[in-house]
């Protein structure tokens, strides 16, 4: 790489909800309202990567930050050795919440580096490099959250080819997220939530799960939000095992559906939960009742009522 002047860009990436019930590791949707902002500065140097953090949420700096892992992977992949990177991560997505916090940072970092250093990068390469950040927190790379934070809307992942299929819903969908103020744990929380999932399932369970996933995709294709909600609620593989990590999960789900939520499940690895509705007003009302229910149980939580974000990572300052 030739000598360069100091270059800088600032990118924001949205939070995301992975799995959407039956779509473990292959489905996710970007949501409005919560974002990570990553500033990347490039200068001539010797391959030094320096990562600092700001924002209301505390996350590690330096090599323990996912931005560092993504940046080093990016430099190694393209054999770039004659530059230094200074990265500032401003956390707006709460960590260990199940809202793709590490995925948002990873996506924004990879996108910023691509804009500065490799404008010819294709989507598959961008996705793979962003997913390296997830390997730091989950033990292995996974693509769902980073894909949603990179590309926006709802994404379906082809794991073998590293290809992303983007789905733009044909109907308005409101998402209410219940965020417990006390996370499960902040250290390797995603790895913990993945460790409780069975390594294999029987054929009957597989068929039921495939049916639910197909129903979800069909509902998006035809714009049937009621069917979409039914599919979100019907996970036969992951939900039962992760529910044990979330206090009062099934009571909360039962109450949400009784009050009129169209579909309810765990957001990503948890502990946040989410439901969908066709009305903002109704989603807000139901969400407030869920918050009150949890408060009576001694669990303080926040509520976010939002929409699917049609934007993924984007440059906000060059």
TrEMBL record:
GO cellular component: cytoplasm
Residue span, GHMP kinase C-terminal domain: 217-294
Gene3D superfamilies assigned to the protein according to its UniProt record, in alphabetical order: 3.30.230.10, GHMP kinase, C-terminal domain
Subcellular location(s) of the protein: Cytoplasm
Gene Ontology MF terms in the entry: ATP binding; homoserine kinase activity
GHMP kinase N-terminal domain sequence ranges: 65-152
Protein family: Belongs to the GHMP kinase family. Homoserine kinase subfamily.
Nucleotide-binding found in the keyword field: yes
Entry EC number(s): 2.7.1.39
Keywords, sorted A to Z: Amino-acid biosynthesis, ATP-binding, Cytoplasm, Kinase, Nucleotide-binding, Threonine biosynthesis, Transferase
Main location: cytoplasm
InterPro entries the UniProt entry points to: GHMP_kinase_C_dom (IPR013750), GHMP_kinase_C_sf (IPR036554), GHMP_kinase_N_dom (IPR006204), GHMP_knse_ATP-bd_CS (IPR006203), Homoserine_kinase (IPR000870), Ribosomal_Su5_D2-typ_SF (IPR020568), Ribsml_uS5_D2-typ_fold_subgr (IPR014721)
Function: Catalyzes the ATP-dependent phosphorylation of L-homoserine to L-homoserine phosphate.
The encoding gene: thrB
Top-level taxon: Archaea
Positions bound to ATP: 94-104
This protein's record includes keyword Repeat: no
Catalytic activities: L-homoserine + ATP = O-phospho-L-homoserine + ADP + H(+)
Pathway(s) the chain acts in: Amino-acid biosynthesis; L-threonine biosynthesis; L-threonine from L-aspartate: step 4/5
Protein name: Homoserine kinase
GO biological process, one term: threonine biosynthetic process
């Amino acid at each position: 790489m030739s000598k360069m002047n100091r270059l800088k860009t600032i990118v924001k990436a949205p939070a995301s909800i992975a799995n959407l019930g039956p779509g473990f590791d292959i489905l996710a949707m970007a949501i409005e309202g919560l974002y990570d902002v990553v500033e990347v500065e490039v200068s001539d140097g010797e391959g030094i990567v320096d990562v600092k953090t700001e924002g209301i949420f505390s996350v590690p700096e330096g090599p323990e930050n996912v931005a560092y892992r993504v940046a080093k992977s990016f430099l190694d992949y393209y054999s770039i050795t004659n530059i230094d990177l200074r990265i500032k991560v401003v956390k707006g997505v709460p960590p260990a919440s199940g809202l793709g916090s590490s995925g948002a940072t990873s996506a924004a970092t990879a996108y910023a580096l691509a804009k500065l250093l490799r404008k010819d990068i294709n989507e598959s390469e961008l996705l793979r490099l962003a997913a390296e950040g997830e390997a730091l927190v989950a033990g292995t790379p996974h693509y769902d959250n980073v894909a949603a934070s990179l590309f926006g809307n709802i994404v379906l992942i082809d794991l073998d080819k590293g290809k992303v299929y983007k789905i733009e819903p044909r109907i308005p969908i409101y998402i209410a997220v219940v965020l417990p103020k006390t996370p499960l744990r902040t250290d390797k929380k995603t790895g913990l939530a993945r460790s409780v999932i069975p390594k294999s399932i029987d054929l009957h369970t597989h068929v039921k799960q495939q049916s639910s996933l197909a129903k979800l995709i069909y509902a998006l294709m035809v714009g049937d939000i009621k069917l979409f909600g039914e599919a979100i609620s019907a996970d036969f593989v992951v939900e039962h095992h992760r529910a044990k990590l979330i206090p009062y999960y099934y009571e909360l789900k039962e109450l949400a559906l009784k009050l009129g939520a169209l579909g309810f499940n765990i957001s990503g690895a948890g502990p946040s939960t989410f439901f969908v509705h066709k009305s903002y007003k109704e989603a807000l009302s139901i969400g407030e009742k869920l918050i009150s229910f949890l408060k009576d149980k001694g669990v303080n939580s926040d509520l976010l009522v939002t929409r699917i974000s049609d934007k993924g990572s984007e440059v906000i300052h060059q």
